[in-house]
Design goal:
CATH superfamily of the largest domain: Glycogen Phosphorylase B
Number of domains: 2
CATH topology of the largest domain: Rossmann fold
Number of strands: 14
Strand order of the largest sheet: 3-1-5-6-7-8
CATH architecture of the largest domain: 3-Layer(aba) Sandwich
Number of helices: 16
Helix content: 40-55%
Radius of gyration: 21 Å
Structural class: alpha/beta
Order of helices and strands: EEHEEHHHEEHHHEHEEHEHEHEHEHEHHH
CATH class of the largest domain: Alpha Beta
Shape: globular
Largest sheet: 6 strands, parallel
Length: 376
């Protein structure tokens, strides 16, 4: 039987993160698939090619790549209003049996460029478009609030127009599936994103030390500020791995109990996972790659009981939940957990075994099955 002709669409390749890791696994699932994106930087392409690990054809991009270069290759935000139209004009018509879209805010606009069934892997409907509290948290000053309000209106309108045309929606967590139902009025199939757990393993020879860990981009919604305040209240120590626009504020509220290590290599991250008492996940994630990486090292996770943590953390086995609520309530709950936390109560091998269920091979199998059934 002839292999299906599959096109893969992503919104931009300007950096490498969790959604790009998903696309890398798409490419491994359908070798030779054509890849499209409105914005592609050399660095973004290079990182994706390295993750795929085999020779890749060039990504089919648009004039927005050249505009991104002209802007110095640093900021993509000014180009976002042009992304929906660029996606609608991709050369997809009549060429493919299925189109698989990686969606953050505008990816589903590719549905208007083809008559083939479009399957959307949804990292989340644009939270900053639909959730006013999240938008206020992310916007920054007055200019940012105004810009994000306008962009949010565009994202809501384009997502709503595209949703009825989708052949199938895959959500990356049950929390995202609930948003897809609430905001788009559509059912979805949940397939957890791939986590490269082979890079992260337990080491029984390394003893747990007296500090907790926060790892991730230092942006407002990750809520590293709550981790800092909880550790201060509990009288503990915290190591923060990562960098981002929120770092200066975090350094202002932190004291001597918190050590900032900045962006770190996999080797440093692995070492911190193995030595910390527990990983802290105080923000509401769509899924959350970092806690699964930590669990692959046998490290327990203390997480807010909302969002993607509900898919990954098993209370009493791989970590514990803190009740979701106001900032003050989360800080109080997390501090209470930290004061008497004993990592010896958790079996590292059981934790690592649970993390194995999120391996890339499992992801590829599940996604391929959903797409094949949709094409029947």
């Amino acid at each position: 039987m002839t292999a299906p002709r599959v096109a893969l669409v992503h919104e931009r390749f300007t950096e490498y993160g969790g959604s790009e890791a998903v696309v890398a696994e798409f490419i491994k699932t359908w070798p030779g698939a054509a890849v499209f994106a409105p914005i592609v930087s050399p660095e973004g392409y290079g990182s994706l090619a390295a993750a795929v690990g085999t020779p890749m054809d060039p990504i089919h991009d648009t004039w927005l790549s050249r505009a991104h270069t002209a802007l110095g290759g640093r900021a993509h935000a000014p180009l976002l209003p042009f992304v929906p139209r660029a996606l609608r004009r991709l050369p997809l018509a009549g060429r493919f049996d299925a189109v698989v879209v990686s969606h953050h805010a505008f990816g589903t606009q590719a549905v208007f460029a083809t008559d083939a069934p479009v399957i959307a892997y949804v990292h989340s409907p644009a939270r900053w478009a639909w959730d006013s509290a999240f938008r206020a948290q992310e916007a920054g000053g007055p200019a940012g609030r105004l810009a994000l309000a306008g962009l949010g209106h565009l994202a809501r309108r384009t997502e709503t127009r595209a949703a009825p045309r989708l052949a199938h929606v895959i959500a990356n967590s049950y929390a995202v599936a609930a948003r897809v139902q609430d905001w788009w009025g559509l059912p979805s199939t949940v397939v957890s994103p791939p986590v490269r757990i082979e890079r992260f393993t337990p080491d029984p020879a390394i003893a747990r030390e007296d500090f907790f860990l926060f790892a991730g981009r230092l942006v407002p919604y990750k809520r590293a500020d709550l981790a800092i305040r909880a550790v201060q209240r509990a009288g503990g120590r915290l190591v923060v791995l990562g960098d981002g626009r929120h770092r200066r504020y975090l350094e202002e509220i932190a004291g001597s109990e918190t050590t900032f290590l900045g962006a770190a290599s996999d080797e440093v991250l692995l070492d911190m996972y193995r030595r910390c008492r527990a990983l802290l996940m105080p923000g509401v994630e769509d899924f959350g790659i970092v806690p699964v990486e930590a669990m692959a090292c046998g490290t327990p996770v203390l997480a807010v009981g909302a969002g993607g943590a509900l898919d990954t953390v098993r209370p009493g086995v791989t970590g514990e939940y803190v009740d979701f609520g106001t900032d003050a309530a989360v800080v109080d709950g997390l501090a209470g957990r930290l004061r008497d936390f004993d990592p010896a109560r958790y079996d590292p091998l059981s934790i690592a075994g649970h993390a194995g269920t999120f391996a890339p091979a499992a992801f590829r199998s599940r996604v391929a099955d959903v797409v094949a059934r949709t094409m029947i």
